[in-house]
Structure to design on (206 residues):
């Protein structure tokens, strides 16, 4: 990892971005206008943090991730390699949010325990979707724009709606798979085959 400084030639941090001195930004990554990357955040190589996006304290992000404009990734979210976070997405971190305690006093950092959203490799979360912690988004899954995710999403699942529900499967290309019968599915883009069993999807030859 390289230090998050605009002077580092392998990392692009525009002057209007706010990057904590102890955040780590991987080689080839960019942090764009008005984005904020908080203390202790760790971003992998070739990541893109869009305009006005927020990456919370201690958030971990793998290589080749994209966090689009005005997305809010609250700590302690954990994003694997190749994750796409669409514009204005929110990854929450408080299961029972309150501004005050039962006695009316203002809550402090010591009065609640943050919980994070986990997003596995290659998954995509569409614009303005909300993932309510502590849900897990499976590898290569797609969360449709505007969905509200309140339970875990399986690998390769396509989920839509409020609350989000699975309506199909997608492959690594992100395109809906075509059913071939007997629990077999095919990607119309790559030709890759998948097998469905007990509500889960796996790639052939794995």
């Amino acid at each position: 990892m390289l230090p998050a400084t605009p002077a580092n030639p392998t990392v692009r941090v525009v002057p209007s971005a706010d990057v904590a001195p102890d955040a780590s930004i991987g080689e080839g990554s960019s942090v764009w206008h008005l984005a904020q990357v908080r203390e202790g955040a760790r971003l992998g190589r070739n990541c893109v943090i869009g305009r006005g996006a927020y990456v919370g304290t201690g958030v971990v992000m793998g290589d080749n991730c994209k966090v689009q404009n005005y997305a809010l990734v609250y700590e302690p979210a954990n994003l694997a390699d190749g994750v796409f976070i669409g514009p204005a997405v929110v990854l929450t971190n408080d299961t029972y949010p309150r501004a005050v305690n039962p006695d009316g006093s203002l809550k402090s950092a010591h009065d609640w325990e943050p919980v994070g959203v986990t997003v596995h490799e290659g998954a995509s979360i569409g614009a303005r979707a909300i993932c309510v912690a502590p849900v897990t988004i499976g590898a290569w899954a797609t969360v449709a724009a505007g969905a509200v995710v309140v339970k875990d999403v399986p690998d390769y699942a396509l989920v839509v709606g409020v609350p989000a529900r699975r309506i199909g499967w997608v492959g690594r290309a992100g395109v809906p798979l075509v059913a071939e019968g007997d629990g077999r599915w095919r990607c119309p883009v790559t030709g890759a085959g998948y097998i469905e069993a007990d509500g889960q999807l796996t790639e052939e030859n794995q």
User: Anything to note?
Assistant: The radius of gyration is 18 Å. The first strand starts at residue 2 and ends at 3. Residues 11 and 29 are 5 Å apart (CA to CA). The chain is about 0% helix and 35% strand.
